[in-house]
Amino acid sequence: MQRLYAGIDIGGTAIKAGLLTRSGAVLISGQSPTRAKKGPHGVLEDALGLIGRLLESIGADWQAVDGIGMGVPGMVDGTVVTEATNLGWGRLELGQALAELTPLPLRLANDADAAALGEIRVGAAKGLRSAFLLTLGTGLGGGIILDGHIYSGHRGFGGEIGHMSLVSGGRVCSCGRRGCAEQYLSATALVKEAKRACRRYPDSTLLKLPSISAKEIFDSSDSDSCCAELVEQYTARLSELCLDIANAFRPEAILLGGGVARAGEKLTAPVQQALNRFSFARAYAPPIPVLPAALGNDAGFIGAACLWL
Amino acid sequence: MQRLYAGIDIGGTAIKAGLLTRSGAVLISGQSPTRAKKGPHGVLEDALGLIGRLLESIGADWQAVDGIGMGVPGMVDGTVVTEATNLGWGRLELGQALAELTPLPLRLANDADAAALGEIRVGAAKGLRSAFLLTLGTGLGGGIILDGHIYSGHRGFGGEIGHMSLVSGGRVCSCGRRGCAEQYLSATALVKEAKRACRRYPDSTLLKLPSISAKEIFDSSDSDSCCAELVEQYTARLSELCLDIANAFRPEAILLGGGVARAGEKLTAPVQQALNRFSFARAYAPPIPVLPAALGNDAGFIGAACLWL
């Protein structure tokens, strides 16, 4: 009987899950809504129900599963969730809660950390030992992989790359600091910046759109001056954050994921250029590749299962 | 026969060395000038000569030594030095060069990394598993210890904390970037800033000194407005760098060493306050202690020997 690992990504709106083989191949995946109001116990029941249905549809049963990997949007310390605001969870002994529902062992990670692990095991950074994943989405999340494993700091309280300072004395962040990277590099921040910039560019194509997206801004940057300016500023700032990461941590690769990363080369190329030109050890060291993340929305559950591989 | 480990710190002006026991106690230490003009072979001969004299003075011989640990001011990859500008060394197979002089095995590290290892094994962070050491001296060096070991990035090209950006669009650094932390937080930078500030404070006590030092600036900050302003600005900037480290890497401690750290609490207290007030996980996590480094100028050779412990 082929041995399987269940990967579960508990998101604010959806639970995504899949069954992986020992070699990291995804046999099947699916999703169901996150009914956060049911509380942790209910959400875990739903997640196991989803895995049960996936097993059934490939003609397997729970006997084939050797372990459950789970990613949650919050801080994680071992199998304890310290907090997961989006789910309305405070401190939660998730390992104990799951043990009431299944005898299978659990490995737990922050969702962005799990995504980074997925990318280095079977995604864009496959074969490498270290990588930083920056997720440029609603917020600016990220995951750090050092020496093949997730690095999340002492008791899981680190890895908050979005709360490194980018603009000295800049905008006040929800965390209380000023100038945090998230305030400038999330997709949300880019769209806000675009709305401000439009006032100076009354002819911008952005004003004709029902709603502005990061992709639209990058797509129009060759023909629209407003978009060109936005992209130049955004990529210059992202380059600064990547240079900080390069100089202090010198990972083997920097991966860009999330909504903004759908811009592809228009995003990665200028950042790559800045790293090649300004990173500290450039005279001796090979360039650090800047790559688009490869696993998209599946990275979370794939990486969660990879906690077992 | 007690087993010994030889620690050697090759500096730009002096070779410092000592003999340590397996438990990390320093039995004896000494130093000799670095005669860089003699080339790597000559410098290594001098270093071994120094160790030989230390052994003799405690009535031991080379048979008692199990390993040599060495710190060099440059980038290190295994037992290869990638470059060490201060010594005039380019790429150097240091392990091979040493093997021509002694059969003893070598472990090699960057000098600031070695110092950080010394601090976590037997110094200010003893008993912890992770710490960042910031050396606020002629430059801004630093060492990163994660999970009990030196972290210096892929092939030793990382760990350049002084070249993380601190002031966006700020001063041009020798590395080519703008606004690097070293341009604001080294002792050299603080003294330069003091000279500029004195123009606005013609009554400052600093103008009466034959030369300005970081210690003097901190010492006079209670009575001299110019010094008070300098200290406030310096500690605010250092706090920003420490917050970046705290949010991204959450070490168990941040250690401050180098000339500026002789200011003691006047330096550490405001940084500690900023970390307690603004670090990302402050609502859940215990505060990250900000501590003065404990081993001073001995940290390099002690840490180098600790590569064996």
Can you tell me about this structure?
With 309 residues, the first copy, chain A, is an alpha/beta fold. Chain A contains nine helices and twelve strands. Chain A has helices at residues 39-57, 94-99, 111-122, 182-185, 187-198, 214-219, 225-249, 265-278, 299-306; strands at residues 4-10, 14-21, 26-33, 65-72, 75-77, 80-83, 106-110, 131-136, 140-146, 149-150, 254-257, 290-292. In chain A, the strands form three sheets. Chain A has a five-stranded mixed β-sheet with strand order 3-2-1-4-7. In chain A, α3 packs across α9 and α7 (225-249) crosses α8. The two termini of chain A are 17 Å apart. The model of chain A has no long low-confidence stretch (mean pLDDT 96).
Tell me, rounded to a whole number, the average pLDDT of chain A: 96
User: So what's the oligomer here?
Assistant: homodimer
Largest interface: A-B, 45 and 45 residues
Order of helices and strands of chain A: EEEHEEEHEHEEEHHHHEHEH
Helix percentage range of chain A: 25-40%
Question: Runs of chain A with pLDDT <50, length 5+?
Answer: none
